Q: What sequence folds into this?
């Protein structure tokens, strides 16, 4: 508040002490209030039960070559595609300088025949088409996001359209040849 | 009171169009306050602080609570176990309810002792009672939400009170329940209203403060401020005093939250609601106990009016009577400090309320404080009798007959003369 | 004036205190107050005791009583590490599904799973237990008057023969501390009911204390975090309040009041 406070110069040294005390108390009070707000903010972060469900195991034995499935992981779809030889070759043959977000195919998969991706368009969060048989796979045989027209290739890399980044690769590990743990 | 001069251009621009800053300046800064207020005057602002705390913690609890009979109990346990700091937020909310009533009850007794309900503060007093009623409704419905045994059976017993009314009773209760018993529709509507009512309380608090600033604060002498020497600006004198009081209060409040979080609660509410089994001893939360005692103490019918209905009426009357005390009190003097006789009746009323609370907690057939032959129900009846007699008989008669002590000419004079006994 | 206020407050407190102490309802005696490691401002859980208590729960109570608010991952709170938790979880069969064929199946437990209930539903629980449903134990330690003290008293309060003239119903057991004295649960604990490996005496008393300590943890897993934070918060508030008091004194110095 900009109200002028009437200050009397009667006891100046004392005034200083008083001012310091008030300043220190205000500082402590403000810090305390700030700390008191943290539990409220933190309560909106992922809770312990949500964090505990952060991984899923998927069996791969039922996915024929050339097809893909969707599984739920952390409330989002994960695409698992059993790639054909042609698709793998297509992904390998792209020159890095042609890519918006340059990444080799090898950096994006653990086993060449299995492509595992978080199925969320990096533009604004829609689910790209191309997983189910018969859906359009876009201009690069990968996925096509119908919301704003982003095209992804057979390695899930962005090739055309407004999306800025490649489809995200989740952390995963193969438990056996036919089962994978995501997260 | 001069209009403030704003040096900051933005503040001035806003204030010229919507004088929020001037309003704040008048009511929280410059507001002339009697300089002799005791610490008993801290509890109004403390109650306001608790209200804000309750709304804040409540909003964050709702983010994780599920109002469904199948999930409510589990969702509360999830808050306690899995949500980050969920236990802290919930325990603050649970104990905050008790703190709210502690502050408000002290605030009310202070008003009663110093005659703060007398002209020209009747509206202020009435709005205060409305706040109390809204608080009671809010607290009751909030207690139902965790859907424990006490939630369920407390809701059953309290809503059944309305069945006491002839003819409309049963349809009314079914309407309250949204069915033939307390169930999911009941839980959902209680949740809805429990979220709504605090904001109604907030609105009433604004009116309460508005009325206060119109008629000005009472003070321990009960003598109105007359000269500028009697008053001091609210800021910094009472802002700092309120803040200091808040510090003390927070230590008290948070001690319970961190070290005895279930002190005010009932163990039975950690058992999920079971419509087939009533807990052996149903008691309301402590802040309802005196009213519960009044309700139970009427175990007889008068002129064919059944006891059940009389009990309900007596319970409502115990609050309604507060509305008329500005006219029941015939004394010319406000503050009991200068009322040598009434002062002692006030003390009896104060203890009477605790006796009622005690009786509300105990089973009717127990002995009162272990005194052989004195049943709780009888003591409750005597206490109820005094409660009403205090307002309806003692107040008008003592006010007429009593000879008050001489009042100080002004607040300043009382401060200078009697600093020792203030 | 001061005297007057003091009289009022004293009277009020006398009444309040009296309400608190004489709460024993019915004919059940007040359970003896026990010493617990988590009492007081600085109280904490004894991890070894909690693990012994878990052993008792697992070996004895889990046969009839569920623990539905506790997940295996929570066992971190009683001092198990991740591998131990995985091993414990894997001992349990958890129903999951439906799988790709639409069938439910059982698989070994994972840390994120909750302790499975011994009975598929309440009706089954009642049918196997002479009509009484064994209550869930997650919150038992705070869902009864006198909490942990009561549970210990109950577990150790059995009598082989009901007193002379007491009419004990078929299939019921006599217990001093159970309201009405007739309890459906047979005496669950006895000396050497489970095998301790840390040299703790395997007496009925000890088993009872250990399992109740464990149940107090399942009821209040936040207790240690709560008290630790509480000490910091109260210390901070005491400093802040003292400072506010000093400021108040300064500001009010020139005012007669």
A:
């Amino acid at each position: 508040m900009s109200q002028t406070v009437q200050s009397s110069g009667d006891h100046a040294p004392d005034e200083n002490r008083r001012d310091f005390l008030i300043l220190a108390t205000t500082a402590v009070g403000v810090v305390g209030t700030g700390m008191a707000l943290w539990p409220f903010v933190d309560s909106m972060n992922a809770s312990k039960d949500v964090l505990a469900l952060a991984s899923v195991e998927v069996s791969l034995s039922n996915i024929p070559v050339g097809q893909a499935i969707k599984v739920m992981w952390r409330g989002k779809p994960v695409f698992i595609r059993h790639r054909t030889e042609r698709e793998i070759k297509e992904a390998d043959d792209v020159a890095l300088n042609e890519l918006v977000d340059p990444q080799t195919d090898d950096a994006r998969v653990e086993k060449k025949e299995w492509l595992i991706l978080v199925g969320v368009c990096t533009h604004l969060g829609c689910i790209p088409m191309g997983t189910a048989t018969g859906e359009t796979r876009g201009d690069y045989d990968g996925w096509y996001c119908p919301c704003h027209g982003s095209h992804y290739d057979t390695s899930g890399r962005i090739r055309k359209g407004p999306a800025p980044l490649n489809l995200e690769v989740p952390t995963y590990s193969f438990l056996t040849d036919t089962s994978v743990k995501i997260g | 009171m001069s209009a403030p001069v704003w040096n900051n251009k933005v503040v001035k621009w806003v204030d010229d169009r919507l004088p929020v800053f001037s309003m704040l300046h008048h009511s929280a800064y410059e507001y002339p306050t009697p300089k002799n207020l005791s610490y008993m005057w801290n509890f109004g602002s403390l109650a306001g602080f608790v209200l804000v705390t309750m709304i804040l913690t409540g909003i964050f609890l709702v983010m994780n609570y599920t109002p469904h009979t199948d999930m409510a109990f589990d969702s509360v346990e999830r808050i306690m176990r899995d949500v980050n700091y969920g236990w802290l937020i919930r325990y603050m909310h649970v104990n905050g309810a008790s703190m709210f009533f502690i502050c408000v009850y002290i605030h009310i007794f202070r008003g009663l002792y110093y005659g703060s309900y007398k002209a020209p503060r009747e509206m202020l007093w009435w709005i205060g009672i409305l706040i109390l009623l809204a608080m009671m409704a809010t607290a009751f419905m909030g207690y139902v939400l965790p859907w424990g045994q006490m939630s369920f059976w407390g809701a059953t017993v309290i809503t059944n009170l309305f069945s006491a009314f002839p003819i409309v009773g049963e349809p009314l209760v079914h309407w309250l329940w949204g069915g033939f018993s307390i169930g999911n529709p009941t839980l959902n509507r209680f949740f809805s209203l429990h979220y709504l009512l605090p904001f109604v309380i907030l609105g009433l608090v604004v009116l309460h403060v508005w009325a206060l600033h119109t008629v000005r604060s009472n003070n321990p002498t009960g003598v109105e401020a007359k000269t500028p020497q009697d008053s001091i600006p609210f800021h910094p004198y009472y802002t700092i005093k309120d803040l200091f009081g808040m510090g003390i209060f927070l230590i008290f409040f948070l001690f319970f939250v961190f070290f005895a979080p279930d002190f005010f609660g009932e163990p039975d509410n950690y058992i999920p609601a079971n419509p087939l089994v009533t807990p052996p001893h149903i008691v309301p939360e402590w802040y309802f106990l005196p009213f519960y005692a009044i309700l139970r103490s009427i175990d007889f019918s008068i002129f064919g009016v059944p006891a059940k209905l009389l009990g309900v009426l007596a319970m409502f009357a115990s609050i309604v009577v507060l509305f008329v005390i500005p006219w029941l009190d015939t004394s010319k003097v406000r503050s009991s400090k200068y009322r040598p006789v009434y002062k002692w009746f006030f003390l009896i009323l104060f203890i009477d309320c605790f006796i009622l609370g005690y009786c509300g907690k105990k089973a009717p057939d127990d002995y009162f404080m272990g005194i052989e032959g004195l049943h709780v129900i009888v003591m409750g009846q005597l206490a109820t009798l005094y409660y009403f007699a205090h307002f309806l008989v003692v107040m008008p008669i003592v006010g007429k007959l009593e000879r008050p002590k001489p009042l100080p000419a002004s607040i300043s004079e009382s401060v200078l003369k009697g600093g020792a006994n203030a | 004036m001061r005297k007057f206020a003091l009289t009022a407050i004293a009277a009020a407190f006398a009444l309040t205190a009296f309400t608190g102490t004489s709460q024993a309802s019915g004919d059940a005696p007040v359970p003896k107050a026990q010493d617990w490691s988590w009492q007081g401002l600085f109280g904490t859980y004894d991890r070894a005791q909690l693990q012994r208590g878990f052993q008792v729960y697992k070996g004895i109570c889990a046969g009839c009583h569920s623990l539905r608010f506790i997940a295996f991952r929570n066992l971190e709170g009683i001092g198990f590490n991740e591998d131990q938790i995985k091993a414990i979880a894997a001992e349990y069969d958890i129903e999951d599904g439906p799988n790709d064929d639409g069938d439910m199946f059982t698989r070994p437990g994972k840390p994120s799973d909750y302790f499975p209930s011994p009975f598929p539903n309440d009706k089954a629980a009642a049918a196997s237990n002479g009509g009484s449903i064994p209550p869930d134990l997650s919150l038992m330690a705070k869902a009864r008057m006198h909490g942990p003290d009561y549970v210990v008293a109950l577990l150790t309060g059995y009598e082989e023969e009901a007193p002379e003239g007491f009419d004990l119903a078929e299939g019921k057991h006599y217990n001093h501390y159970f309201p009405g004295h007739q309890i459906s649960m047979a005496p669950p604990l006895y000396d050497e009911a489970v095998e301790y490996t840390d040299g703790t005496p395997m007496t009925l008393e000890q088993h009872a204390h250990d399992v109740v300590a464990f149940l107090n943890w399942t009821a209040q897993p936040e207790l240690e975090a709560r008290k630790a934070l509480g000490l910091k918060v109260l210390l901070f508030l005491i400093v802040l309040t003292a400072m506010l008091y000093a400021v108040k004194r300064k500001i009010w110095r020139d005012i007669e009041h």
Remarks:
- Chain B has a mean pLDDT of 94.
